[in-house]
Amino acid sequence: MRTQVAIIGAGPAGMLLSHLLAAEGVESVVVETRTEDYVASRIRAGILEQSSVDLLHAAGLGERLAREGDQHRGIHLQWPEERHHLDFVDLTGRSVWVYGQTEVQKDLVAARTAGGQEVHYGVSGTALHDLESDSPSVTFTSADGAPTRVTASVVVGCDGSFGPSRASVPDTIRQTWEKVYPYSWLGILADVAPSTDELIYAWHPDGFAMHSMRSETVSRLYLQVPNGTDLDDWSDDRIWSSLATRLGHGQDGWTLTPGPITERSVLPMRSFVQTPMRHGRMFLAGDAAHIVPPTGAKGLNLAVADVGLLAPALVDLVRNDDSRLADAYSDTALRRVWRCTHFSWWMTTMLHTSGDEFDQQLQLSQLRWVATSEAGATGLAENYAGLPIGF
Ligand code: FAD
Ligand code: DHB
């Protein structure tokens, strides 16, 4: 079959790209290894920054987000005996929204289904071909076992950290950077009202903890744990009592209310960047090109920002044969990628304990400066609430 843009991966990057292209009359075909239900129910990111929200609204995808999303002015930053609120709106005029990736994905799928989008779920053996030609293609075996080829003007790899797209750039051209952190997150979802109005990021000598949320009745919490942690070693009681200790239960009258845990997982943490984000007629967007550790909630937002740049570039390329934006895409996107890579690394290394007592004193000094100096707080706020698309 033939289309204008072949998109590999039906996660947020792939589905949003397909949506933005369709709005400009550019046709795409999406291929995805997993089932539609699996993709829609994966519990991942929870925070949308201002520019992501603006883009989703501009794309006509903001109706449920406006109704059900929860706008937050900032975050709480804490360490033992102290909790400080950073008000991003006062500091930068920008805010963030609690709206789960599961919800973004549902909105995207609903919009693409209404638009008659072709998505091939459950495929296997995805391979990319002829990327340096004007007629690149993607082959795969469809869910019902049929060998299939999609030929296009452009192929876009939105296939996350384990897809084949990034490795299709020749080794002589691609450059990669990677940092693996010596700790992981144990994340839970719990059927209990959040014990906080806005997210709490907590430094603690036992390890980092965070209190996030998904709704008025669902809480999302994370604990720093050693790499290789076995979930079987973490009973519900151990999880809740570690969270209570690290989040400061009892401090200044604050209490953490536990509840039934409905989902739990261990998340390894790494930073990864591959450049360039384009090879011939193949472009990379989202986790296919870069991974950030989750502290600071940048992964999903960066995927949205990539696609926000790539969509107009591809429209110009395939509809008007104008390659200027496409030629600039990798360099432009990478400016934001490296900014978010640095911010995520900075938040991660400031808040997780792994070093000696000297390192801990430096972390505490840094936290105190960020929480109490307007200059320090503004730096965190500007990065967390997100720089404008195209930064
Ligand atoms: P993905 O969402 O990974 O989508 C890629 C898609 O490509 C997938 O559906 C995959 O099945 C598909 N695919 C892969 N291989 C192939 C193939 N061969 N053929 C066809 N399709 C293929 N970010 C945060 O900001 N906060 C968080 O709390 C957070 N938690 C996370 C937890 C986990 C377990 C993970 C993995 C990520 C988390 N992230 C978080 C990161 C965030 O979810 C991602 O940055 C975001 O999903 C990126 O979107 P994407 O579309 O680029 O990639
Ligand atoms: C969430 C995840 C993050 O990494 C973060 O920094 C904030 C919130 C979340 O899953 O809600």
Automatic annotation (TrEMBL):
The keyword Plastid does not apply. It is an enzyme of class 1 (oxidoreductase). SUPFAM superfamilies: FAD-linked reductases, C-terminal domain, FAD/NAD(P)-binding domain. It comes from the Bacteria. Keywords: FAD, Flavoprotein, Oxidoreductase. Its EC number is 1.14.13.2. Residues 2-343 form the FAD-binding domain. One of its GO terms (molecular function) is 4-hydroxybenzoate 3-monooxygenase activity. Pfam families: FAD_binding_3. InterPro entries: FAD-bd, FAD/NAD-bd_sf, RIFMO-like. PANTHER family: P-HYDROXYBENZOATE HYDROXYLASE, TRK SYSTEM POTASSIUM UPTAKE PROTEIN. This is 4-hydroxybenzoate 3-monooxygenase. It comes from Nocardioides alpinus.
